[in-house]
Amino acid sequence: MPRLGEKIHLNLQLFDGQTGLFVIAHVLDEFGTELPGSPAILTHLSFGLYTNDSFNMPFTQEVKAVYKVYLDAGHIVGSPEHSDAIDVFPLEESDIGVDLIGTVEDSEISGTVEGMIDLGGSIFGDILLPGTIEQDVVLDGSVEEDQLANSVKDELTTGKVEC
């Protein structure tokens, strides 16, 4: 199970070890919507194993990869000898849901923290801070998109966040 932001390893091993075919994977979120960059082209590694590591785990309950094998590079003529296959990649549960109720002052938490707070890696999607944080916040990874639902003062890398 990949964690949020980790590589999703798409792999398809053909039962007959054929090496000259063309494999793609339609990469879908939990609702069946194709992710940006899908379909992914899998390249032959060896002995009929086709791979692609270009997708990172998004913030969704699971990712599905539907593999299709073709005889041509244009992905028009399907291989009559190979059925479609599917992989399901559930999101690592520890990355789902963080609730902070209360305030954080001088490194002490008053209130309740439920779930896992990990700001050591890349952050994708929205971060909601419903309470008050009155201390320096250090983020060791990259921050992408609109991260804070409320105002942010100073620098994101080392600053004070006021909600």
CATH class of the largest domain: Mainly Beta
**What best-fitting shape do the alpha-carbon axes yield?**
elongated
Number of helices: 0
Helix content: under 10%
**Cα distance, first to last residue?**
33 Å
Please report which band the strand proportion falls in: under 5%, 5-15%, 15-25%, 25-35%, 35-45% or over 45%. Answer: 35-45%
What does this structure look like?
This protein is an all-beta fold and 163 residues long. The chain folds into two domains: 87 residues, Immunoglobulin-like, CATH 2.60.40; 64 residues, no CATH class. It is 0% helix and 42% strand. It is built from no helices and eleven strands.
Summarize the structure.
The protein is mainly beta and 163 residues long. Helix content is 0%, strand content 42%.
Labels describing this entry:
163 residues; mainly beta; six-stranded antiparallel beta sheet; elongated; disordered C terminus
Topology:
Elements: E1 7-13, E2 22-28, E3 40-46, E4 49-56, E5 62-70, E6 85-90, E7 98-105, E8 108-115, E9 132-134, E10 136-138, E11 158-160
Parallel strand pairs: 7-9
Antiparallel strand pairs: 1-4, 2-3, 2-5, 3-4, 5-6, 7-8, 10-11
